[in-house]
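If your schedule permits, I should be very grateful for your opinion on a structural question. Please examine both parts with care and let me know of anything in them that strikes you as inconsistent. The record follows directly beneath this note:
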Amino acid sequence: MTGRGRPRQFSLPDVIDAGLELIEEEGIDALSMQAVAKRLGTGSATLYNYVANRDELIDLMLGHVLSESPDLPATTGDWAEDLVGYLVASFRAALERPAVLGLWQQRPYIHVGAAARAEEELRLLEALGFDAVRAAEVYRILSSQLIGHLTIAAGLLSRPDTAIAEGGTRVGEAQRHLDVLGEERIYELALRSVVASLAAELEGARA
């Protein structure tokens, strides 16, 4: 709690960072205006000068995270391989912040932060040869696949050991194999299948 006198100075990015740190350390349920204000060393009344409510804070937090670019591997000159590398890097970056995935599930629409990346990705798909309508379809397919795999992977992170089927069952054996393989590799294998199909589609259109 701050004493009397001049209030501590901080910015909107400070508020967003405090919210992200809070959910990563204590979980989504801990997120409140009061808890974020406490982290900043101020009162919740001061926080309302920066954000209107918890919902707006969530949107700002998601917008910040979704606008970040992942650490990308070196380009190869092969668009299909580069696309796989970009999306796998996005998967890896998102999985490092599982608490944010939980917030995303509470806001199932495109955020401002994600919109800029979406625009760029759509332009890239059109540059590859997809018309505007097909580019939008491909973008949705790839995005849905990414979100689906992230949702499963995030859920498995909190899976209790007792949730794994007993040995001797087909489901148990399959899950143990997948656990060894790893969620990132599973996503990459599924992604490569989709990208190979897209590459064949473009090749057919150019023939």
